[in-house]
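User: Show me an example of a complex going from sequences to structure tokens.

Assistant: Sure. Here are the input components:
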Amino acid sequence: MNVSTQNRRDFLKKSAAITVAPGVLLYSVSPKAHHAEKPVTSETRWGMLIDTNKCVDNCTACLDACVEEHGLTEDVPVEIKPVWIRKVTVRDKQTGRETFLPLMCQHCENPPCVDVCPTGASFKRADGIVLVDRHTCIGCRYCMMACPYKARSFVHEALENQKPHSPRGKGTVESCNFCVYRIDHGMGPACIEACEAEGHEAMIYGDMNDPESEISKKLKEMSSSVLRPDLKLNPGIRYQGL
Amino acid sequence: MKKVTFYVIEGKSFAFYGGIIVSVFFILLGLFAAYNMEHHGHIITGMNNQIVWGIPHVFAIFLILAASGVLNVASISSVFRKIFYNPLARLSALLAITLLIGGLSVLVLDLGRPDRLVVAMTSYNFKSIFAWNIILYNGFLLICVVYLWFMMQRSMQRYYPTAGLIAFTWRLILTTGTGSIFGFLVAKEAYQTAIMAPLFIALSLSLGLAIFLLVLLIDYWETHCSLGDGILTRPKKLLGVFIVGVFYFVLVYHLTHLYFTGRHGIEYFVLAGGGVYTVLFWAGYVFLGTILPLLLLYHDRFTNNRISIAVAALLTIVGGISLLYVIIIGGQAYPIDIFPGKEIIDYGAMHSSTMYSYTPSIWEIMLGVSGIAIASFLTVVAVRILPFIPRSLSDTDLDETFKH
């Protein structure tokens, strides 16, 4: 082994260390990078728990945050306005008790919208988030016919000022995407952050497959319910106090 | 049986050019509507986020059902070997093709992204009944073309019964698929029932035969070719049977719903309190589309009159479209039950109620009607190019067996 070869090896090693080390350091300290790099697997099942007892009347923080986050600002009649999350007030027919709750895509384990979509544009990610691929959606609206939660909207008009992180398209169907790009970067859905900021803390999210997550612990401790349990869709959105 | 000769129409008459001009006019209107819907979006239609399928779907499904039903005339001759229907088989298969093309055109042009038709043709989710239908519709067109070819080319006629059997089986599967588009939907109370498939099959038979009888009578009135009473009698009686068949399935559908306490709401909506849907059901489907045509077809006073047969066929179509409107649009207008046992008193800041109304816009109607125009145009052009029409349908020229 001659000296020049040794020197070259040393140089390469040092260069590699200098080049890679900052990357490794960034990777390890940034939760955003960590999530974005991590492959999506079925080991995770994202879910939400909504405590309707903490959801208050006249508060639209979660709705406003969703509109802002995804740019759902079209000025169109209510019948055709895209709504990814809505505030609903229900009254028990027997007892008369009124409950307020946010209603959005329930991110079902067995989503009917995915079953019926002819092109496979409606799909469920391995981690349970139900999405629409805007490139293969042909705008047939069969998924809207199939959704038992009326969670989907059709874009009836040309769009302006779209958010780059949440692309949309005229003539395609859309719904709550669980703020998937935020999730992938280690942040929570915009609606939940807004609810927390208002001090209500009616919504939490987390990995329902992780027994140590807050959502899993709460779901184990307290009783919760899903909407239309008779359909056996196993939604990812759970409600307390409903 | 006696040899049947077919001919190509001359295409010089006022009615021929009139038919072409009117068809092209409505096709152009439909294309203009489709362009506007594509350019501005569905905001110019009456459809919304609750009623997502509107009048174009009513027209499209009407044409698709009629397409599979009209082939029944050819099936009777080749599958059930009732050879007196043989002279009508070519026209029957031709109408099946043209009606289906008309229906599919409307369906495609109503898509949010009709430019992505190639995606629909190449990217399939095989759990979707819609995807299956795309295959079934395309397959049906192909089978009908082969069926016609075997019918018309002497050297291939030995395969004609086999092609007929395949076409008949395919059309049953196809209409089962069309009915199942609604039958497989768990979300809406009006649907999610297996009876949708046989109901749609029965409806396809009545609509298809009604259209066939109308085309036959128009041809007779226009070309003055002989059309014996014999050739009209059997299909006329059959139309009555099909109308009763549809009514039977509609009756069982509603009785089943009325028995289930949980579905009383949708039944009340359709049968009593649904406004336009209730009117269309009772006045459009039951009275105009069922009772009146049965009277015209079976009552002694009307039974031998060709005008009454034409009116009965027309009313059957009116009834069928009314029923489809109630099923397709009424089924969506009735709110879905997201919270069983609870009533929704506020649907959020942006939505004041759960019930939406639907008024079709002129664009949608233009698009829907263009489907019928496309079918008419293609039929008229086809009979001008190839021999689909039998030279004579007088009783004396037809097979002996048919007279009894």
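The lines above are the inputs; the final block is the predicted structure for all two components together. The longest strand of chain B covers residues 342-346.
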